[in-house]
């Protein structure tokens, strides 16, 4: 007999049943313990479901180990990436491949692609590339050149040096990998959708600049007009709408290629086919005002004619000379167009600024102007919010009006040098401003959306329910057409009456709910998200 007296027990029961009894006893003791009761009460009080409780436990177990955390967050449903520049999302390796296929050359001094000399465009031999240039395909034989190009096209290995900041290197990359053929666009869609699918994302709004040479030429031909209505009429009368057909054809061709590559509709279709892609038409804000006006008009016309373009955004460094000096004018232009095209959605890069990058006076009011003058529904970055005039009022106004902020933590760190406690992400959450994480330029930053979730959890100690709230927010604020699945904006407790008797996240819906989901692309995306959460949480 040992001190626990188990010999006596052994005389009556087998070892297996003994261990079962002991473990049942242990479970019973835990279940009756005050600590368990308190924990249960806490979860119930917080309205946490059993799945969310498992999510929270798994997140807490993974929190201390970045690799475990990444694995957990990679599989977690992430809804939408709403701030994703298509060209910035492409990794350097893909640009090099496209340039080699297109017989482009590399300018060795600037490490940028260049066209071969005109005589024989397909001949990118050393001789035809010219002095100081090599064929892009040479990168496959010269590891040094390959490495240099990857570094030039991204933030890999970047160390700031005199006169070259992270901001400069980041934005310069876009000019370096330009020049590859439009036919690659479908490959880019496939690359981005496949990466999103691998991380359990389901919806993307990709920023893309449709070809605008004609609009640009018309703008300089007609010249700036103070009367916006008259200027618009002149541009339209001179054929600005011709650009719409070009934009549509480009997307048609790209989507066809994406579907081919992913074998969509076939028996062996890639799961990436399930990633829904919509587009935001990009306007380049750093150019003369007549060009910005013409391109904005082209974007509003394109979005009106092609429902795949769900909205508009203004891009390029916000701290640039023209971006800063014409900012108010740009907001007035947008306000003018929004009255004419009320169905077209708007998100704006605003407050992608930091002290020192521009004078303090320059931090006064970009977010406020975007929200109040241009009536932006979402704000990209919003990093300088606490430097704006009356920031608390602004935060309350954004919360009241449900203006969502697209948060890109890595990009803000690399470009603006703003991170950790200096980033307003916790303040936005504290004031109840809807927020969702986004990648911005995952190729240039060499990240993915999961990376941003890992970073947010590690930096700000977010809970599982915080994450779920942000994921739901991403779809709630997508520009996908149709009504939300949720009865009240940003309140994810109660679904619309048509689906109130349904168990959310089930595979089947009632006929009333089914009819509603059929009528709304947004709600059906949200329904799918709930299904994915159930699947994810029940596998934990
Ligand atoms: Zn951006």
Molecular structure report:
The protein has 540 residues and is α/β, with parallel strands linked by helices. The protein has two domains: 79-85 and 182-480, Metal-dependent hydrolases (TIM Barrel, Alpha-Beta Barrel), CATH 3.20.20.140; 90-176, no CATH class. It has helices at residues 6-12, 15-32, 34-45, 50-62, 66-75, 86-89, 92-101, 126-129, 143-152, 166-176, 185-198, 213-222, 228-237, 242-262, 289-305, 321-325, 327-340, 366-372, 391-400, 409-416, 425-430, 442-445, 449-460, 464-476, 511-519, 521-538, and strands spanning 79-85, 105-107, 112-114, 133-135, 201-208, 276-284, 309-315, 345-350, 378-381, 404-407, 435-437, 486-488, 491-495. It has an eight-stranded parallel β-sheet. A hairpin with a 4-residue loop joins strand 2 (105-107) and strand 3. Helix 12 (213-222) packs across helix 15 and helix 25 (511-519) crosses helix 26 (521-538). The longest helix has 21 residues, at 242-262. The model is unreliable at 1-32 (pLDDT under 50). The structure holds zinc ion. Zinc ion is lined by residues 83, 85, 349, 380, 440.
Strand content: 5-15%
Q: Helices and strands: which structural class?
A: alpha/beta
CATH architecture descriptor text of the largest domain: Alpha-Beta Barrel
| End-to-end gap | 42 Å
Low-confidence stretches: 1-32
Our Rg estimate from Cα atoms comes to: 27 Å
Which cofactor or ligand species appear?
zinc ion
* Fold-level CATH name of the largest domain: TIM Barrel
Classified in CATH, the superfamily of the largest domain is Metal-dependent hydrolases
Please give the largest β-sheet.
Answer: 8 strands, parallel
Q: Please work out how many helical segments DSSP would assign.
A: 26
**CATH class category name of the largest domain:** Alpha Beta
What is the number of domains? 2
In what order do the strands lie side by side in the largest sheet?
Answer: 1-5-6-7-8-9-10-11
Helix content: 40-55%
How many beta-strand runs?
A: 13
């Amino acid at each position: 007999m040992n001190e626990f007296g188990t010999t006596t027990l052994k005389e009556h029961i087998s070892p297996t049943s003994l261990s079962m009894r002991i473990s049942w006893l242990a479970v019973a003791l835990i279940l009756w313990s005050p600590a368990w009761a308190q924990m249960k009460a806490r979860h119930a009080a917080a309205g946490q479901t059993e799945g969310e409780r498992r999510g929270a436990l798994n997140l807490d177990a993974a929190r201390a180990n970045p690799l475990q955390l990444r694995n957990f967050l990679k599989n977690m449903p992430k809804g939408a990436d709403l701030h994703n520049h298509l060209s910035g999302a492409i990794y350097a390796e893909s640009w090099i491949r496209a340039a080699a296929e297109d017989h482009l050359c590399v300018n060795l001094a600037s490490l940028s692609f260049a066209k071969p000399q005109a005589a024989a465009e397909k001949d990118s031999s050393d001789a035809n590339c010219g002095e100081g240039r090599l064929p892009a395909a040479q990168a496959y034989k010269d590891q040094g050149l390959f490495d240099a190009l990857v570094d030039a096209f991204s933030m890999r290995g970047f160390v700031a040096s005199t006169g070259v900041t992270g901001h400069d290197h980041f934005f310069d990359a876009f000019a370096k990998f330009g020049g590859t053929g439009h036919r690659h666009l479908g490959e880019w869609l496939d690359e981005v959708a496949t990466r999103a699918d691998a991380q359990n994302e389901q919806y993307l709004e990709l920023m893309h600049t449709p070809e605008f040479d004609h609009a640009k030429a018309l703008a300089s031909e007609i010249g700036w007009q103070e009367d916006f209505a008259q200027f618009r009429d002149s541009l339209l009368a001179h054929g600005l709408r011709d650009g719409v057909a070009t934009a549509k054809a480009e997307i048609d061709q790209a989507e066809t290629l994406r579907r081919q590559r992913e074998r969509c509709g076939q028996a062996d279709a890639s799961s990436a086919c399930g990633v829904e892609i919509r587009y935001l038409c990009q306007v380049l804000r750093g150019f003369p005002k007549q060009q910005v006006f013409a391109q904005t008009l082209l974007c509003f016309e394109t979005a009106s004619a092609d429902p795949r373009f769900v909205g508009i955004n203004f891009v390029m460094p916000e701290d640039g000379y023209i971006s800063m000096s014409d900012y108010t004018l740009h907001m007035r232009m947008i306000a003018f167009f929004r009255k004419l095209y009320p169905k077209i959605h708007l998100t704006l890069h605003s407050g992608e600024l930091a002290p020192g990058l521009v004078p303090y006076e320059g931090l006064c009011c970009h977010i406020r102007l975007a929200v109040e003058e241009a009536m932006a529904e979402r704000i990209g970055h919003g990093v300088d919010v606490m430097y704006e005039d009356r920031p608390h009022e602004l935060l309350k106004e954004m919360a009241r009006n449900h203006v969502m902020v697209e948060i890109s933590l890595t990009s803000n760190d690399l470009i603006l040098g703003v991170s950790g406690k200096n980033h307003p992400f916790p303040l936005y959450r504290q004031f109840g401003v809807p927020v969702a994480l986004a990648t911005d330029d995952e190729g240039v930053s060499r990240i993915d959306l999961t990376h941003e979730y890992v970073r947010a959890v590690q930096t700000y100690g977010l809970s599982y329910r915080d994450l779920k709230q942000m994921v739901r927010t991403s779809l709630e604020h997508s520009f996908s057409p149709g009504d939300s699945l949720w009865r009240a904006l940003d309140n994810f407790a109660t679904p619309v009456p048509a689906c109130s008797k349904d168990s959310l996240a089930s595979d089947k819906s009632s006929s009333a709910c089914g009819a509603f989901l059929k009528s709304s692309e947004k709600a059906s995306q949200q329904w799918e998200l709930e299904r994915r959460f159930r699947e994810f949480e029940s596998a934990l």
